[in-house]
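Researcher: I'm preparing a figure for a lab meeting and need a structural model of a single chain. I don't have an experimental structure, so a prediction will have to do for now. The sequence is pasted below. Please return the structure as tokens so I can convert it later.
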Amino acid sequence: MENRSSDVALCREMLPGLDLVTLSRQGLSELFITCRPHPGETVAALFQRFAHLLKEREARVLKQTVFGARAAHPAALAALTDACGAIEWPLTWIEGLPCAGGEIAGIQAHALVGAPIETLHLGEHVVGRLFDDGLARYCILGNLLPLDARASEPDQARQLFESLEAALGGAGMQCSDLARTWLFLDRILDWYGEFNPVRTQFFAERRLFDGLVPASTGIGGANTAGAAITAEAIALQPSNGQVSVLEVPSPLQCPARAYGSAFSRAVVISSPGVRRLLISGTASIEPGGKSAHDGDVAAQVDLTMRVVAGILASCDMGFADITRAVAYFKRAEDAPALARYCTAHGIAGFPVILAQDDICRDELLFEIEVDAITARPPA
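Model: Understood. Here is the structure written out token by token.
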């Protein structure tokens, strides 16, 4: 399926185990890849299939995220290296166990064709990639870690944000250029209450509350480094007045800052012919900020998806415009609730990985994050 607006083309391919959305403009193409294992497929075969796609499309990875068992990491990394050579992009491995069994829930990647890419390092570690589409300069970050995994969780969180700032500095950017963050907290339920003040203080010191506060996901998930937290991010610097980055409120929820969480519900990046909507991790939260439908996963999925639908609709988008999504379930056995909701509401399949991870509140059973792109002009 392909949509066009002037010199912008948006192509969507949905195949067994693979969803691929390609955005082409200004002589370059961005690929948004969601790759899930086939039944019985080995970890090595999954990563070789992913590598084959990259070679077939002559694409270079900007950022790769894997949700799977930490025990599968060595074999997966060996297979990826064998197929692609040295890994020159940030690869974030999160212990998000597959809800349907096995070792890997899925792979998501953002890749590029047709434009130069710069690689960012912090010390010896690859943490980011840079590219320019002629309208803005983008910094795509991943596998960011604190300096000392033995420090207390709040100290590691502070170090993580300082590493994020250092990576942005290496790209000639600042925290005020952030549009989106992902924050994966190991044992999130043990210390999320301590994490939030650290983020709020850091953002206040960098004066982010005077401008755009990035969209964000804060979710449970251990990492292969044994740190308390790891992160990914997207930042950009518009080159001229043709690109804007704006907060998008949720029609059905209060701002997250009203109850002490420093993130925007969503952010939209608008450029000629293209709008990108980055929706934060969204859960069953009432308009006043309290959790809703304790213990009822079907009701939590219903409210959460209505909230997401409201944000999409506010930007003249729908579920058909989704380029990637991750659905997090506290209990793996609850995963079919999302498919039941989509069937009942006539929502066709969209690129999503289902992962088992703790949500930031013990009573929350489901959370989903969504990115969407449209090449249609606003209604």
